[in-house]
Amino acid sequence: MLRKLLIGTALATSFAFSAHAADVKEVQMLHWWTSGGEAAALNVLKQDLAKEGFAWKDVPVAGGGGDAAMTALKAMVAAGNYPTASQMLGYTVLDYAAAGVMGDLTETAKKEGWDKSVPAALQKFSVYDGKWVAAPVNVHSVNWLWINKAVMDKIGGTEPKTFDDFVALLDKAKAAGVIPLALGGQNWQEATMFDSVVLSTGGPEFYKKAMNDLDEESLKSDTMKKSFDNLAKLVTYVDPNFSGRDWNLATAMVIKGDALVQVMGDWAKGEFHAANKTPGTDFLCYRFPGTDGTVVYNSDMFGMFNVPDDRKAAQVALATATLSKSFQSAFNVVKGSVPARTDVPDTDFDACGKKGIADLKKANEGGTLFGSLAQGYGAPPAVANAYKDVVSKFVHGQIKTSDEAVTELVKAIDDAK
Amino acid sequence: MSAITSPARQASSGLGAKTINRIVIYGLLALFAIFYLMPLFVMLVTSFKTMDEIQNGNMLSLPHAPTFAPWVKAWSEVCSGLTCVGMKGYFWNSIKMVVPAVLISTLLGALNGYVLTKWRFRGHTLVFAMMLFACFIPFQSVLLPMATILGSLGRFGVTLQNATGFNFGLGNSTVNLVFVHVVYGLGFTTLFFRNYYEAFPTELIKAAQVDGASFFQIFRRIMLPNSLPIIVVTVIYQFTNIWNDFLFASAYAGSGDVMPMTVALNNVVNTSTGVVEYNVNMAAAMIAALPTLIVYVVAGRYFVRGLMAGAVKG
Amino acid sequence: MSTVAETQIKLTPEHDARPGASVRSRLQDLLPKIVLAPSFAATIVFVYGFILWTIYLSFTNSKTFPSYAITGARAYQRLWRWTFESDPPSSWYTSITNMGIFGFLYILICLALGLFLAILLDQKIRGEGMLRPIYLYPMALSFIVTGVAWKWFLDPGLGLEQTLHQWGWTSFHFDWIKNKDFVIYTVVIAGVWQASGFIMAMFLAGLRGIDGEIMKAAQIDGASTFQLYRRIVIPMLRPVFLSAFIVLAHLAIKSYDLVVALTSGGPGGSAWLPSNFMYEFTFKRNEMAVGSASAVIMLMTITAIIVPYLYSELREKSR
After folding, report:
1. Bridge partners of A140?
2. Which residues pair with A286 in a beta bridge?
3. Which end of chain B is more exposed for a tag (fewer CB within 10 A), N or C?
């Protein structure tokens, strides 16, 4: 396959080269940011490129958090019609790079100083075999609590510092007749919450061993069992209708005050932002209890494909614009995430954003920046999805005890490796 | 005594039973009509409501203050990705893909059916069985190999372009989609026409042959003019399937300028951030579904007639 | 052997002695095959070729992309093992048991409901022209269009349950879509909604095709309406049953967006069908070999069901 792909590319390149002498002033961009805020944020990039004279050929494929788009990408690559760039996540970038279809932006990276400004943890995915193959757009962080301030005041709650505090807070909300925990019962949401639970229960070292290194001893340890028990505890605080709910609807429950808190990545802040809510007065953002100082991240990246030479100038322009400080700031203010480079000023960000930027910097320097397993940054998709299966089956009762869950987890991950 | 009254009584009680019977039948039919109409009803009333009413009201209640704004927005403003031109722009993309695909697959199906019933050769049943079995292949499993082949055809198109100045549509997304839908529609269209022509009197063909009519003359003068019912069935079936296809369309024609209606609709509807504008989504969905709905409602009568004329016979 | 000889003998007299005419007539003889050839060739390449390709991949170690080195039947071994993991259910176990439940109920209910509605509609109903498209139209819509409406309708917080609660029936419960053990039945409901009208049309066409004289004769003989249908009409609809079965079987096996649009997989993946499994493993989990193996098993199941039917039907016909 590899060879075939390479030949395909070579052919495509040579033909295209002979057909057009002049550069193509166009970027073809595959993405799944089709809804309001995200599309608006991406539009900034489109306009930045337009200023430099590059047209934007949009290839939006929505659905399934990028599933449909990744299927389309696979078909495009199989056909040898590479887009200039595609929105991609974690291990997918590395898979495509290993297949030899990604471009090489090392020169641009050197010129722009990406090596120094982009956290090393991210470079693990954007650099393959010493070559820059992707431009990270943002850094999301998963271990957050999003709390409705009015509800918090009503029940007289304070920031929970430990898991037990958190449970006590949820109890208070329950007693006051509000839904304590807003959760969407889809496997990725449940697993995203579990990422935080594992980190909180076992601490940073344990998280890294279990969720990134997939160390079997850790996976079947008592700490893991305790994590599942803690998850089970949290699930008792959700409303009966949670199954299948979209994450943004769960966020809306918190925004409206129907629920107290949601455990979700910082993309949830984009929802508060879109609803014109201010941190501190309308809502509160805390790190998941017991996880302060550690950042469990995922990142949207623009994978850069090995396009014909006449399209390379446009690609370089796209990559440069993506990692420009102005775009990084403008985009991430809207999206709720923080810039993928650590040298972007935090002036335009709200309080939560400022905390996010500071946390990322601290975690990057302190070595506590870990990939989220639920979000595809802890292990390849086969393992990540096997993990999501087990967590989701545990939440919905197909797996009944934490003992069974741990056994299943080890088995499923082993199977998928 | 009893001999005289009983027929009358029977008749009168029969009449009563008959009326009850009719009431039951109409009642049942109406009940099922409600079941079938429910989702359409929900979509329709939602598309005329304001967002406020959707969030606070019942999904089955009629709109208090009907508004056309969602329809206007869906038609001319709604965004698919970064392009905000409404659904109207994607009609043409779908039509220029659907119409040729339906026509070609129907014509090929008719020819195949004609050959397989009136010009039989050894092994014709096997050929037919193989084409029929093709209907069952799950499309997800052909997505990648087909993409690879379309890609090579596209590169061949570039070579042709350089050599002759024309690429004959090779590599064009719309042409690709037409090709794919024709290939995977052949099983159905051949099935429909073969079963229809099976019942068509072979004597007529024989007579025409004796008169010296050629293969194509017989097809054009005798078969086609008598095929209207089955053509209607085939066209409806193919039109609906191809119009509604998302998998191939999103994988082979995802970019804005060639994107068919379903892909655009999916981009509008399938969002998971922000406040979902259900009224606009429902209006957009109705707009995207309008052509197939019209086809079914307008041609529905001929559809049953066409099925009657042979498509259902084995 | 004997059939070959026979055909050859039959063919000889048709050949003309003159060379020019011989070429033309031979071309005439070949013409039907030439016309059929492109379609058949396309089927061979794009269906059977791809099936072979899928079979091949299922014996490789293909992950994100196809890899062409044969590595053995590990994918099948895994599927085989998963087939028996029922507690907790493996995704494959869920998919195939769901296929059994869904396939059986979907086909059965569609056939029964379709026949029932067709018989009702055949009772010289006023307004048939209006009712027919109402029953038929769901087939025209994709679940990208109707998915949201169905999701709302089935959601206990928004749809039927809440509506009936508002109307005063507060003890009513309908939360199947949230329940891992019942979610597959909501998929059946939506599936039946989509296809049963189409099946109704097929039965209606079949009923209209039955000779009225036979019905009249039976009625004169004193058969009740029920008997009339059970003894005479329904047996005569046998070919319709078979075509309807083919249509439904192929729809059932291809049902994919139904599950995604309605349940996004269901609680803990409890609504999966084999097509979801195949898509998920091929495209999402980058386990193309496993995805291919599941596709092969699906195709084998289809073959086991369809081929005997095709064989009996086509052999009967050609006689």
Report:
1. A298
2. A145
3. N
| Chain A interface includes B250 (CB < 8 A) | yes
CB contact under 8 A, C175 and A241: yes
* Residue at a domain's end among B26, B45, B67: B67
Domain C87-318 is in which class?
A: mainly alpha
Pair B11, B131 in one domain: no
Determine the structural domain holding residue B232 and report its residue range: 75-311
Q: Looking at chain C from residue 260 to 319, which residues have their Cβ under 8 Å from any Cβ of chain A?
A: 260, 263-270, 279-280, 283-287
| Whether residue B2 is found in the same domain as residue B18 | yes
Please tell me whether residues B258 and B110 are part of one structural domain: yes
For tokens 């069974």, the residue is A404
Residue ranges of E strands in A281-368 = 283-287, 295-298, 300-304, 338-339
Same domain, B201 and B149: yes
Full strand arrangement of the beta sheet holding A138-141: A338-339, A138-141, A295-298, A369-371
What residue segments make up the domains of chain C, in order of their start?
Answer: 2-58, 87-318
Neighbours of chain B (3+ CB pairs under 8 A): A, C
Please give the model's pTM, rounded to 2 decimal places: 0.90
Tokens of A357: 């930027």
Report ipTM for this prediction: 0.89
Contact C266 A241 (CB under 8 A): no
If asked whether residues B240 and B134 sit together in one domain, one would say yes
Strands (E), A196-309: 259-263, 283-287, 295-298, 300-304
At residue A104, the pLDDT reads: 95
Q: Which two tokens stand for residue A315?
A: 């690609």
pLDDT of residue B15: 60
pLDDT, tens only, C47-94:
999 999 999 999 999 998 998 999 999 999 999 999 999 888 999 999
Residues in C touching B240 (Cβ below 8 Å): 139-140
Please tell me which residue of chain C has the smallest CA distance to B41: C149
**From B143, which residue of chain C is nearest by alpha-carbon distance?**
C50
CATH superfamily of A142-296+366-416: Periplasmic binding protein-like II (3.40.190.10)
Residues across chain C? 319
Query: To the nearest whole angstrom, how far is the Cα of B102 from the nearest Cα of chain A?
Result: 24
Q: What rounded mean pLDDT belongs to chain B? A: 86
* Domain co-membership, B32 together with B166: no
Alpha carbon distance A254, A146 (integer Å) = 8
Contact across the interface for B274 and A42, Cβ inside 8 Å: no
Helix (H, G, I), strand (E, B) or coil at A378: coil
Whether B251 sits inside 8 A of A76 (CB atoms) is: yes
Mean pLDDT of all residues in B126-136: 89
Contacts of A56 in chain B (CB under 8 A): 82
Q: Last residue of some domain: B44, B67, B90?
A: B67
pLDDT at residue A6 is higher than 50:
no
**pLDDT (0 to 100) of residue B26:** 93
Closest Cα in chain C, distance from residue A371 (Å): 18
Instruction: CATH 3.40.190.10 in chain A: give the residue spans.
Output: 2-140+298-360, 142-296+366-416
| A-C contacts (CB, under 8 Å) | 93
Q: What is the CATH number of the domain that holds B108?
A: 1.10.3720.10
Helix (H, G, I), strand (E, B) or coil at B191: helix
Report the chain B residue with the minimal C-alpha distance to residue C264: B270
Q: Does B58 touch chain A (CB under 8 A)?
A: no
Nearest to A382 among C65, C89, C286 (CB): C286
Q: For chain C, say whether A195 makes contact (Cβ under 8 Å).
A: no
The pLDDT of residue C317 is: 54
* Subunits with 3+ C-beta pairs closer than 8 A to A: B, C
Residue C319 predicted with pLDDT over 80: no
**CA gap C100, B125 in Å, rounded:** 30
Question: Closest chain C residue to A72 measured between Cα atoms?
Answer: C283
Ramachandran sector of residue B208 (left: φ over 0; alpha: ψ -120 to 50; beta: rest): alpha
Tally of residues, chain B: 314
CA closest to C149 among chain B residues: B39
Domain count, chain B: 2
